[in-house]
Design a protein that fits this description.
Helix content is 28%, strand content 11%. By secondary structure, it is α+β, with helices and mostly antiparallel strands.
């Protein structure tokens, strides 16, 4: 019907989609209140894209530096490669 929206439990940008490979750059932001899983979700999303062959730079502005903990890596200010196709800072 006109005006109806299609909803999915998987965001469109997370679904395996060949059009993602044709994009030159994509920015994805994860936000919300504390404790809702922003770091875990963003790390999993980035790892999934990297596994699909996308080159991914994962950045965190969290002063607690929990992204390094999630990746089991000692992250500092400069991005560094933490896995195939995945850089983090």
């Amino acid at each position: 019907p006109l005006g109806a929206q299609r909803h999915s439990s998987v965001p469109r940008s997370c679904a395996k989609d060949d059009s993602l490979a044709s994009r030159s750059q994509q920015l994805v932001f994860f936000g919300g209140k504390g404790g809702v899983g922003k770091t875990s979700s963003s790390a999993a999303y980035a790892a999934g894209l990297a596994e699909q062959g996308q080159q991914v730079l994962l950045l965190s502005t969290d002063p607690a530096h929990s992204l390094g903990d999630a990746l089991c890596e000692d992250l500092r200010g400069e991005p560094r490669q933490v896995a195939d196709n995945l850089w983090a800072a």
